[in-house]
């Protein structure tokens, strides 16, 4: 009887510790791009019927159609989205029990979402609401508002529908803005926050394409690019049509379709440790210098993709590559 009582007390204390002292989000909670029942329901009930009726059946066209649906205002994963600033304001006001002031123009579902996501994702750092939600969280709520949300939802749906045969042909990707990385490198400021972007890369007919999952657009990566070829100190850059003035650099690429890169918080994702070995505080990439590569024009991909896909989205007039020795 004493042993039973002691065991019960231990379990209660352990539960209380987990409830009050452990971080709101743990990587052990599961993959950020896991195919859950909610993901399957969204993928098979909403997206698959559209794909089945779509006249283009090649892999690339099907993936681009998923990209379009994910970003669609009505069919996509953002129908209940809330302005990102509201999460931060709500968090500050709720400390004073005044969070309701931030919810006056929201639907009942959005109000509940603010409360739930604050509790689940914003305890360690309010900015984690941008990075901690998994594809399951996002698709259940249809409340995507950031690049990580769209990239994770896209990958999870593609997995659910088995749209890619080789798991190494599609990768979750983390990038940073070249300007902020260069500034941090110049200052040797290891604590500086580096702005960036999350998206997906895919391999089509032996050519790698970057999909901007937030904006339903794509660009070709340079000739000879492979995910394994990007390693410190060598890097390449990406420019998307929606952000023409911003040069993004690779910081981490998943090893296959199941790799979520483990970036579930601001600290894990955006600080300097993601530039190379996250356990090593030293800067791993060299300074980025942008140079136009004349060979990487819109014609570079023509003939490499299925004919039905070539007109899906215009490529950038030219891609930029870093000249790192």
Structural overview:
- It is built from nine helices and eight strands.
- With 325 residues, the chain is an alpha+beta fold.
- The strands form two sheets. A six-stranded antiparallel sheet has the order 4-3-2-1-6-5. A two-stranded antiparallel ribbon has the order 7-8.
- A hairpin with a 2-residue loop joins strand 2 and strand 3.
- Helix 2 crosses helix 7, helix 3 (59-70) packs across helix 7 and helix 6 (135-141) packs across helix 7 (147-161).
- It is globular.
Report the uncertain regions.
1-28, 291-325
- Spatial ordering of strands, largest sheet: 4-3-2-1-6-5
User: Main β-sheet, in a few words?
Assistant: 6 strands, antiparallel
Task: Quote the average pLDDT.
Answer: 81
DSSP summary: helix tally: 9
Approximate helicity band: 25-40%
Number of E strands: 8
Alpha-carbon distance between the termini?
A: 71 Å
Q: What value does the Rg take, in angstroms?
A: 21 Å
Look at the helices and sheets and give the structural class.
Answer: alpha+beta
Q: In total, how many domains does the architecture comprise?
A: 2
Order of helices and strands: HHHHHHHEHEEEEEHEE
CA-based shape: globular
Q: In percent terms, what proportion of residues is strand?
A: 5-15%
Quick recap:
By secondary structure, this protein is of the alpha+beta class. 34% of the residues lie in helices and 13% in strands.
Task: Give descriptors for this structure.
disordered N terminus, 8 strands, alpha+beta, 325 residues, 2 domains, 34% helix, six-stranded antiparallel sheet, disordered C terminus
């Amino acid at each position: 009887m004493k042993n039973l009582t002691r065991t019960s007390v231990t379990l209660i204390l352990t539960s209380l510790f987990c409830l009050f002292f452990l971080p709101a989000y743990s990587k052990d909670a599961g993959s950020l791009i896991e195919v859950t029942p909610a993901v399957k329901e969204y993928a098979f009930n909403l997206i698959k019927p559209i794909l089945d009726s779509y006249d283009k059946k090649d892999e690339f066209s099907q993936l681009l159609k998923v990209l379009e649906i994910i970003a669609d205002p009505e069919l996509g994963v953002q129908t209940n989205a809330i302005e990102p600033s509201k999460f931060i304001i709500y968090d500050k006001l709720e400390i004073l029990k005044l969070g309701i002031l931030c919810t006056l123009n929201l639907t009942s579902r959005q109000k509940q979402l603010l409360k739930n996501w604050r509790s689940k994702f914003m305890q360690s750092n309010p900015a984690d609401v941008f990075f901690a939600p998994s594809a399951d969280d996002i698709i259940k709520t249809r409340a995507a508002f950031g690049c990580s949300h769209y990239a994770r939802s896209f990958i999870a749906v593609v997995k659910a529908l088995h749209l890619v045969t080789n798991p190494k042909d599609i990768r979750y990707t983390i990038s940073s803005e070249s300007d902020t990385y260069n500034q941090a490198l110049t200052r040797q400021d290891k604590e500086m926050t580096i702005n960036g972007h999350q998206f997906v890369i895919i391999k089509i007919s032996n050519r790698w394409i970057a999909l901007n999952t937030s904006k339903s657009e794509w660009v070709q990566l340079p000739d000879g690019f492979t995910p394994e070829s990007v390693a410190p100190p060598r890097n390449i850059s990406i420019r998307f049509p929606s952000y023409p003035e911003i040069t993004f650099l690779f910081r981490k690429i998943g090893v296959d379709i199941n790799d979520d890169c483990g970036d579930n918080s601001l600290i894990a994702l955006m600080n300097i440790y993601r530039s190379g070995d996250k356990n090593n505080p030293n800067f791993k990439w060299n300074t980025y210098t942008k140079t136009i590569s004349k060979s990487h024009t819109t014609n570079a991909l023509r003939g490499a993709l299925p004919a039905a896909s070539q007109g899906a989205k215009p490529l950038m007039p030219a891609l930029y590559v870093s000249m790192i020795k």
